[in-house]
Design goal:
single chain; ADP-ribosylation fold; alpha+beta; four-stranded antiparallel beta sheet; three-stranded antiparallel beta sheet; about 20% helix
Length: about 110
């Protein structure tokens, strides 16, 4: 199953340079990296990235994350994927820019 990590342009540049990330400030504060399924990503973008452009989606295969991936209740009790280790470049299957159309973020369905 694919899950996604949304990064801002600066966060993505640092990820590319370092080959890994401990996440954005919210991830560091919470002690894990917040991920979203394809179904959860639009609401994540609305809630946490409203009005932002220059975002990228990193697609990650859950089977490759092992025991470091935990599914935990979040918004409305829905189970969200949380990664309890750094996200590494080797974990990422593909990266694509997140477009904005009519003020809404469009979650990519594949590499661009």
């Amino acid at each position: 199953m694919l899950v996604f990590k949304v990064l801002r342009a600066g966060e993505y540049a640092a990820f590319r340079e370092e080959g890994a990330t401990d996440g954005a400030p919210i991830d560091l504060a919470d002690g894990f990296i917040h991920l979203s399924t394809a179904e959860q990503a639009p609401e994540t973008l609305r809630k946490h990235f409203a009005g932002e452009s220059g975002l990228v989606a990193l697609a990650i295969e859950t089977e490759n994350l092992g025991a470091a991936l935990k599914w935990e209740p979040s918004r409305g009790g829905a189970l969200f994927p949380h990664l309890y280790r750094p996200l590494r470049a080797a974990d990422v299957l593909w990266v694509a820019p997140i477009r904005v159309e009519d003020g809404a973020h469009i979650v990519p369905d594949g590499p661009k």
